[in-house]
Design goal:
With 301 residues, the chain is α+β, with helices and mostly antiparallel strands. It has 7 helices and 13 strands. Strands 1, 2, 3, 4, 5, 6, 7, 8, 9, 10, 11, 12 and 13 form a 13-stranded mixed sheet that branches. The longest helix has 16 residues.
Length: 301
Amino acid sequence: MSLPTPWICEAAHADERRAALELFFQRLPDRPRQMRVDEVLGWIDEEKFPAEGLRTVRDPAGALVGVFPCQLLPGFNGQVWAPVVNAAGAAETLIRDGLDWLRGQNARFAHLLLPPEDSARAEILLPFGFDYVSKISLWQHSLRGIHAAPLPAGVALETWRLGNDKRFARTMEATFAETLDIPEMNGQRTGAELLACHRVEGVFRPHCWHLATCGGKDVGLALVNEKPDGWELSYLGVIPSWRGRGVGRALLSAALQSARAREAPQLYVSVDVRNDPALQLYREGGFFPRETHDIYLAFFK
């Protein structure tokens, strides 16, 4: 017979969210801490972060002793932040509560991003199925001085419309084969599911989604989305048999031009540092690296 836990887990009450966030950001100096607390409270008010995802743990006397922020992103994707716990023994209960909450939101997996210098903060999550996977590098393009890349012989580009949406989905799924960009994620989502995920991220711009075709065969695609924090090349992929033949370069050129035509200030892309061909493509295309994060993944059964 197991003994009842002395810890009480639930979402932070409305009148204690500030205190919970103060605890979560306790490592920061006063002024930056208050700025981050106000920022996240604003996200909650604007429904950009779920109030129910601010998971907390209290001791038997009701004192707040830990915080574990979690949220469900489009595409069955749970995002977590390294929990902060100030009471011995409370971490396990809090983490299980947060992961159970994500499962209840139909998350299929969860990810954690940390600056490499903060990697020690991930250790608390490793016993709960999280594994270090790779580093994700964020690259930026100023959208100045770009030139159209020639299309490979026989290749044409078309933009998204209702009549070709299923072709976009099938092509996306075909590009998963032999991918070097977080291959651990293969099989977690279908092409249609991932495409639907990208459609609801930020502002959907159909004319910024390109499909590459050759002789009636769809061979690659690139998706550009306008998001609250900037314009992003959300996805670029080419089917295995057409890689190294200039299709990726042509799709990247179309993505850059579509972002510039809509007066985007810059374009961002995130890439797995193990993906050398993609890194070379973005470097030659005029992108430069901004920052890098370690990524950890946990898959739910």
